[in-house]
Amino acid sequence: MAPRAGSLESSQAAVEALLAGQVSQESWRLLRESSCSLSFDLQVDIEHVSSDSLRRLAKTIGKLHPDNAAALWEWLALPASGESRPKKGQPAPVPRVQELLVVLGQVCGNAGNLVAAGGAAYLTLLAVPGADQQWSTLFQSTIFRLILRSLRCLRAEIKQREKLNADMEVEEERPEGEAEEGSTGVPKEDAEELLTRLVAFLRERSMASSAEGVALAIQELAELLLRPSGDSVARLASEGLAALVATAGGQADVRRAAAAVIRAAMPGILMMQERSAFASIPRVMTQSRTAALRLVRSLICDHPQLLTPQAPTAPCLEEEAEMGGQPVKKKRRGDGKETVADKDDEAEETAAAESDKKVLELPDGQQLVVAEKDDVHDGEKKARRKRPKACAKDDPIVALLELLCVLSPDRSEYRNLSADAVLSLLCEAAAAEWKAGMEPKEPGENSAVPLADAMEVEEAGVAPALPICEGEEQVVVANPLAPPPPRGTVSRFANFLEQILGSERVSLRVLATEVAVMSLERSGQLVKGPGSARSALVKRFLSSLVHRCTDAVPSVRSRALGGVATAVQFLSRQSDGASWLEALMADSSHAHYVDLKSLFRLAATDEKPMVRRASLGFFDALLPVLQGSTRFDEKAIAHFFELELVGSLSADESVLVRKASVSSMALLLRSCPIPAVCQLWISSVLPLLLDVEQTVVERALDELEAAVLNPLSEHAAACAKDPSKSPVAGLPPVLGSLDSDAMEYLQRGLRALSKRNEGKLPSRLVEALIQMVTQCLRPLPLAEWPLAAWSMLEEITAFDGVSPVSFDLVLSAWNLFSSPPGRKVQRRHNSKSQGTDIVSTAGLGGLAAGCAARGQAELVGGKILRTLENLVHTAPQEQLVELSSSLCSSLASFDAPTALIRGITSVVEQVEKILKAKKCCKEREAERVAWRAAFLKSGQSMLSEYVRHGPGESRADERQLCACLFTLGEFAMVDPSIISESIVNQVQTIATNTIWRDGARVDTPPAARGQAFAALGKFCLRKDALAKKTLELFVLHLNSGESFVVRNNALIVLGDLCVHYTSLVDRFVPCMTDLLRDENELLRKQASMILASLLAEDFIKFRGSIMLRFLYVLSDPSDTVRSLVESVFARILCSRNTTMFSQNFLDIICALNGWSGLAAFQGAMGNDDFSLQKAPSRRAAIYRFMLANMSNDQKFSVCAQIVTTLLAAFIDAEERTELPQTVGEPAGQALRDGLALLSCKEMRICFSTQKAGQDEELGDAEGANGEATKAGAEAARGVLSSILKRNMCENIVPVLIQLKSLMEAKHSPFLRQLRHCLREILRDFKDDLQVMLAGDQQLASEIAFDLQEEEGDKGESIAKSVMALQLGGASRRQSLGTMMKTPMAAPTPIAATPIATPIADACPPEFESPKSNAGVASSMPKARRSTGLTPGCATPTPARSKATPQLPISEQKLAVESGDMGPPSRMRTRGKSHEVTAGAGA
After folding, report:
1. Threshold 0.70, pTM exceeds
2. Vertex 168, ends 166 and 173: CA angle to 5°?
């Protein structure tokens, strides 16, 4: 009968099956003394050993009953022969246990296929009860090492895949199942089974008695953890390491083992197994990171005592050994004897140290020796402070967190994962502390620290990890932002985090900021208990993050700003934090005052898009805080930030910023729906409906629905349930102040929304608009008719398909609008109770001259007419005839305002087309001919009466005269036969103001003259001969002596004539460009729009004086004019010719300064009136815009032109240009501009050194090619740097040195600026000044001294005020706006007149340089140039416009005097919105 498994007999039988019977003492000696190599021979035959016998041994002794263990050990202690004593002359017999160990050692060392089974048997033997009593015999480090080595096949090998550069390689994971070179060839399945057995052994048996075994296990298991071949291997390795710590022994042993395990696993958390970052993180590293984090979390949970730091040991004079406690041997001479000099020197140093020591008593009775305070200030080491014993074990968890921050790779993906790891471990530690009852008490409760002692300890270089009390007196630290450090892990790590937030390493600051912000976001997990403890942590980080908001690295600035917003949001929700925060924000005398306005302004004007995007996030976070404060009402909240600055971000060049601005202004509108905010929303959000980026359009459409359409629909539903509510009262506040541009944006937004919804709009929106129109018919006064509702109704009726709006409803509105006040108007009224009935209502007199709300009436009337035009195809024939007759009578009576005549004629033409299509035109033909003849007769009679030479006053009414002229022009566009010579003469007489009565000239009102020029222009467009004859007449009336209305309409006529007769008008284009410097802002804008339209369609060429004068408008004092011209350049001109600025840069410099000293650049000739010689700030604005639209190659070209052409002209030996003697003369201004351009920040093209933050941006490259991009950029930068250096040495520096010598000889006033220029261009080559300056040692030393002084001055300014940091800290160059200032005491007139024009005197605020260099550096405007256009400018016109494609002059708005012209109308023909008013007051 076979022995039962687990019995003593079965175990003995399994052992006997393995014993070779030939093991000698020599074999045992070889096993004990052997080093672990790939193979070794113990002189034992193992051919009889099989895997089955090894597994049988492991199974039997593993199931051995504990009562039989002692008998087994006694049996194993005896030799196999049974003789305990050796025979005489023979070697001593080997006990069975030694014989078994030799066999197992031979199996593990040679037989690859048996290693796993042999290792499992050996580990099972070590786990048998009672093995610890024979541990010195049983545990053989050689066998244990062989077992661990056999697990190497479970490692994932890293192989080289491709090279990015000479220093870095991209590597890939070894295919699964492939053994690593040098391994024992153990099958992977067997090795994984052996690893499982090893983990079980480590859990069951402590290895504390074998330090070597613990070290071997940690080393091999850590390698498996760092390079696992699978998730199961990584999990088992982490469990094995955790078991080593759990069974380490006492508290000190546990801390020692935990420190070793954490140190070994840390590369896995950092994913730095190969000490180099990868373009894409391999799967093996992700597995390793997950397992390593799991390991550390388990250590924190299972051993919370690791979170309690050990008290620091006192510094000693002799450094002790780390493990054994024995003194370290002194350095000796080669003969091994200690020198007398060493003893004497050490004795003197020890005596000096002892005399200046101060001993502090720690709470646990230990002593801490520190140096006196004065000694520390002297900078001399009076005490030999040695490293405390076992300092790595003082605080292992905090040490790990610190190392994760310091050693994290400088790559965005790695850095983010490191920050996440730090926060997850920190949260785990906080939870473990709270669970174990180790959380510190409230700040201020038993946590006071003696201030004097704390300072002394800190000055001595020892962190006050524990409260230090000296004597009985204690001083409580009363700093709310930096409370006394409590005993928790979070607080100790916060001390370190505050220090690295100010580190000089860019990557360390980036990571520290990320960790700080994440700590604020997860502060609820870091600090348990009452809210005051959490508030203390938030306050602690707030100050540091505020300082980082002005960091030199963009990512630090943006993330820190988000952290400040998070902190402010949290504190506002706490009772104690809200009051503290309110005092912090409002009281500038507060010790920790935070100027939130300045933070937002700095971020919103930052040069990096990511920071500007963060400013909007900061804005969004702060709005609810301000709204919840009792100190701020809606108006104060809206004006807390600069609304103009918030609005400017909607025109940013970055798509992300524009998208975020929509959400920010939507939040502001919901929080503060006051008129100023509504106007900001209108001017910022609505233009984004036409953005070039579709994602921005989608965001703007969503906001349009949320802010306009949904409130209208909801109010309509409420009105349907409650008839007492007024539909008009539900109009959103943003629709109450829409101008013509905003109306256009709103209509185009509706069309885009319908396209997104498959050609449909919400039915509830249409019902809401119909309810408003019905409400207007009750009637409401014309001043209360909602213009925005009529605009949306116009757009809805223009959609293709069946219109949901009834023609009867709109016709009733027109009849009510146009009827005189005394006439009753009948309309149909539908009611649910009584059905359809007829209601009589008095007319509102919208066409009457005495209408109270004339401007509103004309705007509403125009919308009604365009809505009727869209719906006439749905009307029955009887209503069409009635409508046509009504409109024709209004035209014939000349009572209709000129603003409505266009709409009336369009509706009449549309009706005639429909009647003609219905074959109803023949019966009305005679009637139409008779009406037209009567109209012409009455019109000609009115003109004759007005221009007659007889005595007496003319009886023609001015309003009717303007209507007659406008209507004649409209009819001439349709039927040129009405243009007779007599009518032309009469119109020309009125236009030229040559009416004579009684021998004296009678002045014609400007409104009538403006309409006469418009009518005459329409005649010219229809008759070529008349255009050739009267063209110069229009040019003549562009002079400044004429009224604005006349000049404006003459300019519009010339623009349209240029389209039809380009060759005729081409020679008069300079006369049109003269208006770009006119005093009237509206006329300048009109001239810019017309010229832009002609340039866009190539009717005129952008060259010569046109280019120089158009560039002049880039410095216009009016924001609207300047933004319009910037948009034209950005969207039209620059895209056509990208080298336009670089090719003409010198010509532009000479023209703007009025200097014609260079023979090849005579742009100043003929452009004297467009000179900005005495306005440097305006010139700087033009230069900045040009540089912003130039590539680096073009900037190189401009730099070469300035040096080799402009500056070299003053030192040319053959054709030298005289050096200017004064700064104010044109040549002096041109020279100053050239030097300023060379040294300005905008022209800084540096490839030898990088600006702060560029490394960060390159390191943030994402994707598989991110590292390749960075490497390629570095290589290109190195090549270009050498090219730049050679160009500087050969072409630029020699010219500047010669010019410097000339200026020194002539005592030139430009010498200072030249030296500044020379210093700035050599700043990046300060290490090669001798080479760059061709050996001029004196000049090199002067420039080096200036640069050193500047560095020192800047350091002092930063130390005084962090908020005074310039955001572009890496670039010390000044911007053009700073260097080129316009003297305020000497305004420059634009023309040689005693009256200073607004253009000459006014300088745009953004072009003014800052008062001090300590403020925010002036930088290039960040506005996106493509969003500054008015509606329709360079964009296609919606298809809904049914204006007849006739002469553009009839499509434009003609200016008349105030009160006689309607609202602005859109010019639809060429896609431009000629925003010309009718009259001065429009």
Report:
1. yes
2. 130
